[in-house]
Amino acid sequence: METAAKRFFSSPYFAVVGASQDKSKFGYRILAWYHVHSLPVTPINPGRPSIALPSKEYDTVPSVLALPNPTQTALSFLTPPSVTRRVLEEAKSAGVRAVWLQPGSFDDRDLKYAKENFESAVGGFEPGTVGGEGWCVLVDGENAMAAAGRKFVRQKL
């Protein structure tokens, strides 16, 4: 899993499936994490035209298929499991190579599908995570970025 996380952060672009304007939701927190770490991120939310952080407003796209560079974009999933499988299938058809299934966004079938269909699939409780909830960008992201040799400059939220 550590190798998959390293490959995930080797991607030039990132997107958050299930990005949210609600500050109490992980869809907002993960989007904010990418922003703070100066990573090029696109929020995916079919119901909103944009999501505003305190220092920047991001235009959303309605689906993975609307991403400008899906084959070069790694996806973080914050969708309910009932939505995740459909979006994983869409991501596969778009040529996405790397996915990160956040805790609570998948079931065992989704994780198996992701591991079988993407070059890099992160999720679950395999060794290497430093958190108790399983592999999470908020907890494991900086270590995975460092392993990928990706430098970042923290910017204001």
Automatic annotation (TrEMBL):
<dbReference type="Pfam" id="PF13380">
    <property type="entry name" value="CoA_binding_2"/>
</dbReference>
<dbReference type="InterPro" id="IPR003781">
    <property type="entry name" value="CoA-bd"/>
</dbReference>
<protein>
    <recommendedName>
        <fullName>CoA-binding domain-containing protein</fullName>
    </recommendedName>
</protein>
<dbReference type="InterPro" id="IPR036291">
    <property type="entry name" value="NAD(P)-bd_dom_sf"/>
</dbReference>
<feature type="domain" description="CoA-binding">
    <location>
        <begin position="8"/>
        <end position="105"/>
    </location>
</feature>
